[in-house]
Amino acid sequence: MSLWNIELNEYNKYDNEKYETIFTLANGYKGLRGALEFSKVGNKGNLIAGVFDKSYAQVTEIVNCQDPLGFNIYIEDELVDIDECNIHKFNRTLNMKEGVLYSEIYISTKSGKTMNIKSERLVSRNNVHRWASRYEISPGNFSGKVFIENIIDGTVTNSTKDPMSRAKHFQVVGSYDLEPGMALLTKTFDKNIQIIEATRIISEKDNGNAFKFRKYSEIGEKVVEVYETFLKKDNPITIYKYGTSYTSRDTQENLISIASKDLQLFVKEGYLKEKQDHIKVWENIWEDTDIKIVGDDLAQLGIRFNLYHLSSSAYEGDDKVSLAAKALHGEGYKGHVFWDTETFMLPYFIYTRPQVAKCLLMYRYNTLKGARKNAELTGYKGARFPWESADDGMEVTPKWGFDYDGNPVRIWTGDEEYHINSDIVFAIVEYYRATGDKDFIIKYGLEILLDTTKFWQSRVEYNKEEDRYEINCVIGPDEFHEHVNNNVFTNYLAKWSIKKTLEFAEWVKTEDESVLKTLCNKLGITEEDFHEWNEIQKKIYIPTSQNGIIIEQFQGYFNLADIPIIQHDENGMPMWPNLGEYKLGETQLVKQADVVQLMIMLSEEFSQEIIKANYEYYEARTMHKSSLSPSMYSILGLTVGDTHNAYKYFIKALYTDLRDNQGNTDFGLHAASTGGSWQSAIFGFAGLKVSKEGDLSIKPWIPEHWRCMEFNINWRDARINIRIEKENIFIKSDKHTSITVYEKKINVLANNFVKIPR
Amino acid sequence: MSLWNIELNEYNKYDNEKYETIFTLANGYKGLRGALEFSKVGNKGNLIAGVFDKSYAQVTEIVNCQDPLGFNIYIEDELVDIDECNIHKFNRTLNMKEGVLYSEIYISTKSGKTMNIKSERLVSRNNVHRWASRYEISPGNFSGKVFIENIIDGTVTNSTKDPMSRAKHFQVVGSYDLEPGMALLTKTFDKNIQIIEATRIISEKDNGNAFKFRKYSEIGEKVVEVYETFLKKDNPITIYKYGTSYTSRDTQENLISIASKDLQLFVKEGYLKEKQDHIKVWENIWEDTDIKIVGDDLAQLGIRFNLYHLSSSAYEGDDKVSLAAKALHGEGYKGHVFWDTETFMLPYFIYTRPQVAKCLLMYRYNTLKGARKNAELTGYKGARFPWESADDGMEVTPKWGFDYDGNPVRIWTGDEEYHINSDIVFAIVEYYRATGDKDFIIKYGLEILLDTTKFWQSRVEYNKEEDRYEINCVIGPDEFHEHVNNNVFTNYLAKWSIKKTLEFAEWVKTEDESVLKTLCNKLGITEEDFHEWNEIQKKIYIPTSQNGIIIEQFQGYFNLADIPIIQHDENGMPMWPNLGEYKLGETQLVKQADVVQLMIMLSEEFSQEIIKANYEYYEARTMHKSSLSPSMYSILGLTVGDTHNAYKYFIKALYTDLRDNQGNTDFGLHAASTGGSWQSAIFGFAGLKVSKEGDLSIKPWIPEHWRCMEFNINWRDARINIRIEKENIFIKSDKHTSITVYEKKINVLANNFVKIPR
């Protein structure tokens, strides 16, 4: 077993959708779900970042675009359909090092003909508009006529299997015969985004062409090319399928012209060259991002799976898109962007690929207009970032959903989950702390800080009696409890973010006063506002605990029914206790890290004693009904020495999708959990932290069976390599830097190894 | 077992296409293949008589129109898909007496929910534009939310499973929400025929509505209505699905307006009323057509199956369409009309429902323009009816096909199978003999006779040496032999039809000379032509036999390799002998009745001795590779006393589709064989014949185990009932008539039974 490969060796059609997610190939621009060409079972997906549409759907959602993957083989008149075949060999292998999906199947058809099909597929990271497949087809026990059918399918819908939500988001506006090759141009209904997919297939046999006849046709919303060939027993042919994709979001050029020109060039350059270039880019990505864990294959393979998909899901080429909760891997959560991006995924990019992190933050800057509209529409001022965000920053959280029993329930998160504003500010500050990118703060970051603070100013309620500011009727990270007052997470981060806004405003004023002046002018911020902000941040009510130790998640939480979690499943995860007469919201059961989340984000604000007590209190009450939770408990578990559970939660996080432990991998990647997995490794096991003063420190703890853990991080301008072994820690940096290791400040000279005994 | 019911009690998805054909519901206007709503496996079909298109296809073909049948049930989010269910009970029953398809399935879904679904479906014979279904849905072990999805699917293509032939023949030009109900309007590519399908579903529970919510959407080329309902355990709901269909061939009215108005009226009148009226029409049809066979359930059920589908396939409402080789039951032979109609199916209509027979003949009259064009394009004069005919009488036989090994072969039938012209003349004469419909001859029939004779005049070649007319390079009914000279069937019928033309011309001249004059003027026929025709018919070469007894099928046939048929399959049908070095066309093996066919059609021209000898000679050499063959051998077998084989061939013909004994029932009904079955019963077992002098006679022979055979026929103005029992024959007529029984002329007074001892 290579620790770079995710392998599937048995076929079960009921797992197709899960593996479509697991085997998704994406490059930040486009995600192609890992559909098996030779099965009709599944839910294929071609998601292009930023292509959103509402039309018939409940809310604006990512568009499942026309599918260019279609590739059928007919032996005489018999379609090779794996679900109708005997399968003698089945293997699909995602080579994460290369970013290439390999497969090999050996089947007998219903009529008894045998065929071996080896294939490869890649979505190019070298040129994000390109993707390709390669097929090696060997007839086993027959010689005969074979038809190869190349299809671009425009009948694709979103929510295909759900009749009430199913929606078609585009119409076909052009079908093109490229002689050979073909293209299908579509246009979304609402915003008229045009999308083109172009493909061509090329055969190779004995260094020459193997196709004897071609027929092109337009079949409703599909374009189809059929090629006739003649296969000889045990004499394989190779077919390359080239694809290019463009949208009117990317270019002003005529789409059919650019897509077909690029396709032509792609064919000329050849599959092999693109594959090599693509692998080279992936080598660079892995150079930045890999975490080596020696001695624990389970953890090694698992962490790479998470890093691989997280890297696949974003790139530096488009600052008007962000990373969705299900990434480019499925339609789940409608392609919407949540706090998942800033709170869970962004740290990975900040510390490994800051150019991508900047792009993700720029998405928020570029959607400020929508955030302002959200504030205005709900009666507030400034910018109110949406709980769920699509293309323009307007709130797109559905208003209605279904509970566990299928009854309609009002979804309140879009109305009440305000903490998203502070989460974004937190991310900007973290980005700045790690990169020192002043330019970003001055040009973009400060505007977000000011305008979100302006929102808080209008949102907080002054309680005269207590002389304090409150934030009532909210939802915190724990979504089991709605309409709560003074959620600590929300209030604490609001306070913190207002404070940071004041600090950054002060700092920018000294750097370039005109910038601040211009911003205040634009956003309508006066000196009085600054004073009021200062008052608010000082007086925001942070509920204290009964005993000064355990923090009450929100006002009144301690009065709720305290129903103990008694049973755990085979993975050690909590099972639902009997709620008796209580509704879920009437208990202290928590969906996911909330106070715990706060203690990770603002760890410098809490003593070790308080952290430990709160970790223990909430760990006993958390159901982990969100994939965002286990990784966070892993981090805090390591902080407080609960290493057994920390490791359990780490593995749980790593295998969220590979083991489908939330039961919905079908619908896309648990992207937050991929970021949480990285955080758990780096912030947890390596104990990496930035102090209040802005200094970098590590405090590693690794399990007994790990012989070594090694990774790179970007810190300011430096690339630091950290290798944690049983006895020693080795640190190397390409620039002179300093780092605190177990409370001791270490100077690291450029390109010199420093060895620190543990 | 009711002898009116075709039942299927076991489900096997691989039989779906076969049963789609067997369970097709048609009314002459429209055929809806018997797709099972709850399976995705199959090849659904909605064929509307006369709707032809070529566009991307090889030749003009019947259009598989948008499918209005779509009806999905979702239990919560789980689609009821029979191929994913455990099946506890499965029954589909075609009640042929009523023309209603009943079904009942009881299944458990993958998640373990049980449901019983009873349904009915009819394609109304009372109003050919209407069809409907009724569903009774009972949840077994659950109560819960259920979605009902009503779909009209415009993604339908022809030859869906064959990538090289697949073609889309229409585009969607209108999607309509009828609130409730919906309609989809399409338009064919070539001739802009517009087709509308409209449907509405109505629920009923405790005498009230059961639907709680409706959502309409347009999904690409589909329109979809989803209804939400809540089912209680063991508490069934009933859903009626109403449908109307119109095309721009039928009406000048706005299609959406007429279809939705009719739909509204249909719903108002109710399913039950339409069902009753529909059954009443079928009662009348059965009154005209049924053949009772007492003592032989196999034959009784089998003959009704054939009569049922033949009756379904044509009606008196459209004289611009005819009955295709696969009827309205499938896309096989592209919906083309062959000699099958006139030679095999028409006698049934002539003797039972002459108004339909007239319509079928009118189709030929109405396509004379195309037939004239065919003659002109191939260098001849007059009218040359196409071997394969679609909407306009132009030749639409494909030029290329594939042999048994999949190699492309030139198809010559469209170039050389000239006998179709005489087959049509033969049918006209037969129609006239049975009905005495002078008006038809004067207005339409004679023109066909004259113009086809004009074709023969230009086609025959004068052999000066032998002083005879020859017809060379032809294909006779036996298509194993191409480019043959002087095929006896072709030459004999050409001779006969020219002779009949001269007789009818003479007769019309005496009836109304101006008619003949006008026709001669229009068709360019002079007195010299009449003389030449007479010369030709006298001197057409009819190859004589070596010994004066066995007729040589064509010149040179006796010189071919005489390879004996050695083996027969379990049904007693011949198996391919080893051809050795010979190609099929180099042997005396015959595809189907050829000389034998001639001896049935023109039996009065041959002595009993010659018929017997030729029957035996060719029976030993016929492979029956056409479903047109067994019934004919059955008839001639009875004539010559080979009763054992005659019965075998009769059963073979009856069960052509029910036992799929040609292996291609998937693609549609073997319509010629249904007509052949009727002929075998009536012309064979009852021995019904019209003498040269035009007198009706019967000469029954029935198998030992038949207690009785009874049927009605139309003869001139009379309806004659004939009941053949072991000892006696009973004859009754509603008008005074005479009939020859076993060579003895019997007078039958109106409404009196005549009993004739056998």
Shape of chain A: globular
Per CATH, what is the topology of the domain at 5-287 in chain A?
Answer: Beta-galactosidase, Chain A, domain 5
- The quaternary structure here is homodimer
**Biggest β-sheet of chain A: count, sense, barrel?**
9 strands, antiparallel
End-to-end CA span of chain A: 32 Å
Strand segment count of chain A? 31
| Adjacency order of strands in the biggest sheet of chain A | 1-8-9-10-11-18-15-14-13
DSSP summary: helix tally of chain A? 18
Give the CATH superfamily of the domain at 5-287 in chain A: Glycoside hydrolase, family 65, N-terminal domain
DSSP strand content of chain A: 25-35%
Rg of chain A (C-alpha, Å) = 27 Å
| Mean pLDDT, all residues of chain A | 96
Unreliable stretches of chain A, pLDDT < 50, 5 or more residues? none
Helix content of chain A: 25-40%
Largest interface: A-B, 31 and 31 residues
User: What is the CATH first-level class name of the domain at 5-287 in chain A?
Assistant: Mainly Beta
Question: What's the SSE blueprint?
Answer:
Two copies of one chain form a homodimer.
Chain A lengths: L4 E4 L7 H7 L2 E2 L3 E3 L13 E8 L7 E4 L6 E5 L2 E2 L6 E10 L4 E9 L5 E10 L6 E10 L4 E10 L16 E8 L4 E7 L5 E11 L6 E9 L2 E10 L5 E11 L7 H15 L1 H19 L1 E4 L2 H16 L26 H14 L1 H13 L1 H10 L22 E3 L5 E3 L2 H4 L3 H16 L2 H22 L1 E3 L4 E3 L17 H24 L1 H11 L3 H13 L55 H7 L6 H12 L9 H12 L2 H12 L16 H15 L3 E2 L5 E3 L9 E8 L2 E8 L2 E6 L3 E5 L2 E5 L5 E4 L1
Helix pairs in contact in A: 4-18, 5-6, 5-9, 5-18, 6-9, 6-10, 9-10, 9-11, 10-11, 10-12, 11-12, 11-13, 14-16, 15-16, 16-17, 16-18, 17-18
